Each structure stands twice: as C-alpha cells, then as structure tokens.
Amino acid sequence: MNLAGPKPDLLPEEFALQLVQDRADIDISGPEFNFVRSIRVYDVLIDDDRDDGDCDRYARVRIGSYDTQGGFSWNRANRSAIPTAFGRTSHGCSLFARAVFVEWRDYVGNYGFERVDY
Q: Which residues, other chains included, contact 20 with Cβ-Cβ below 8 Å and sequence gap of 6+?
C-alpha cells in the first residue's frame, strides 16, 4: 500500500519526554505565569423540580484551580461563587454545566473571560 502525502515530523531520537505528575516541571511561581493561576474549572449542578422557584434544593459547585507550581485541586463552593460571566443557561431551575472558565484582568484593569464547555 502506497500512502501519498507529506510525512509527519518526528521528534529526534535524543528527545526525552519528561513526565511529571501533579506539578509543572519548571518553576512557574513568577508573575509572568499568573495566567496559569487564573484558570478556574467549574463543575456545576443545580437542580430543583419544585414549582416554587426556589433553586436551592440541590446544588453542587466545585471549583478547580492551580497553585503556584501548577498543582491542580478541587474545592467545594456554593452558587454565589459562580461568576456572572460564566452564564446561567438553564432549563427552569436546573443548571448543568462543566466548563473550563478563565477570567483575567489586563494591565489596565479591563476584564476578560473565556468559557469552554466539555
């Protein structure tokens, strides 16, 4: 079988992949890496099947974040921890969302964010 087309670039044989678990393999504690610490991962489940409009019957909010050296951890939170910019697209009182949500302020204080659902 002859497969036409460009050949993929392969890594040199001397290239060694360093596997590091639970942390970055370089020092990322400086301010130039603040973008890593600005990443928040939200796991949100709010559900209420009652008709009175009170959505507090069941709520689970977890926020994942990165520490100074890139270690990731989950922390429990409540509904008030969900940023307004995250959005509250829901069906009735229910909100099911799992997303990577990054928010930041630039050097002059302008707010920005990005949400990617998964």
A: none
CA gap 53, 62 in Å, rounded? 23
| Tokens read off for 86 | 């995250």
pTM: 0.60
**Residue 103, exposed/middle/buried by CB under 10 A (0-12, 13-18, 19+)?**
middle
Over the stretch 90-116, which tens digit does the pLDDT of each residue have?
A: 556 666 777 788 888 777 778 888 888
Q: What is the largest CA-CA distance in the chain?
A: 67
| Coil, strand or helix at 107 | coil
Contact by Cβ (8 Å): 36, 70: yes
Token representation of residue 84: 């307004």
pLDDT, tens digit, 9 for 90 and up, residues 35-81: 778 888 888 877 765 566 666 667 788 999 888 888 899 999 988 88
What is the distance between the alpha carbons of residues 57 and 48, in angstroms, rounded to a whole number?
6
Q: Cβ contacts of residue 52 below 8 Å, gap of 6+?
A: none
